[in-house]
C-alpha cells in the first residue's frame, strides 16, 4: 500500500493575519495555516475562543521571536449579547442555566454598558485557559468543579452600543489585555437584572493590526502554494507600534555583535533597522540602545 508523501517543511518567516473561523480552536487554526505554508516553525500571539471569529495573528519562523509582544496590546471586539438567558460558559456553546424575562428599555441598556467603561474588576470565567495547579480552568469546569478565582483589574477603554433589538444588543469593545468579553456580557446582563450570554464574538483589532488585512483559510488555500509567501507580513509587523531606530553601518555591526549602540532614542523598546530590520532593542536614558532580540539572518 502506497504511503502518502511526507510533508516537506520549509523555512518561512513572516506574520499571517488570519481571520479565524468559528468552531475552530486557535491551535487547530495554527496547524492548518502552518500546513498551507509548509512552515517548519509556527506559533500564535494569544488564543481566541473556539466560538469566536476574527483576527488571529500567526507567526512563522523568525516572527515567533516577537509573538509575545502582542500579548500586552489592547484588543477590539464586536459582540452580540442575548439578554434574558445565562449559560454555563457565558456564550452560546454552554448549557442554559437560567431564563428570565427581559423588561428593560434602551436607556437602561446604554446606562448599563456605560457603567463598565474605565478600569473595572473582573472575575475570570471557569471556562478559560487560565491555569490552576498546572491544569486549565475549563478542565475543572467540565468535571463540574468550581475553583475560586480572584478578581483582576482590567480596562474597558470604550464600549459602544451599535444595535439594540431586544433581546439582542450589539456592542463594540476596546479593552486591555486579560479582559474576557464573555464575562463583560454576563456582568452587563446581571446589572440589567435579566442575565445575558454572547451569541457572537469577533475580534477586529490587536494593537496596530486590523481585521481588514486578514485572510481566511479558504482564501489562502485558493492561492498556489508557490505564490503564498507574499501573503505574509514581515516579522517586524508585530512591532509596528514601537518607535523606529535607524543605525549606520558601524552601529549595525556593533548591534549585531550584542553591543549597545549610542544613539538618542528616548526610553523603552524600539524597532532597530540598519537599513533592514535587525531586531528588537531597548533604548535607555543614557542614549544607548541595547539589543534584546535579533533575527537569525542578522545574527549570522
From TrEMBL:
Domain tRNA pseudouridine synthase II TruB subfamily 1 C-terminal per the UniProt entry, residue ranges: 243-295
Domain of life according to the entry: Bacteria
Catalytic activity: uridine(55) in tRNA = pseudouridine(55) in tRNA
Keywords of this entry: Isomerase, tRNA processing
CDD domains the UniProt entry points to: PseudoU_synth_EcTruB, PUA_TruB_bacterial
Record EC number: 5.4.99.25
The protein's enzyme class: isomerase
InterPro entries: PsdUridine_synth_cat_dom_sf, PsdUridine_synth_N, PUA-like_sf, PUA_sf, tRNA_psdUridine_synth_TruB, tRNA_sdUridine_synth_fam1_C, TruB_C
Entry annotation: catalytic residues: 49
SUPFAM superfamilies recorded: Pseudouridine synthase, PUA domain-like
Domain tRNA pseudouridylate synthase B C-terminal: residue ranges: 182-239
Domain Pseudouridine synthase II N-terminal stretches: 34-181
Biological role stated in the UniProt entry: Responsible for synthesis of pseudouridine from uracil-55 in the psi GC loop of transfer RNAs.
Family note: Belongs to the pseudouridine synthase TruB family. Type 1 subfamily.
Listed name of the protein: tRNA pseudouridine synthase B
Organism of this sequence: Uliginosibacterium aquaticum
This protein's encoding gene: truB
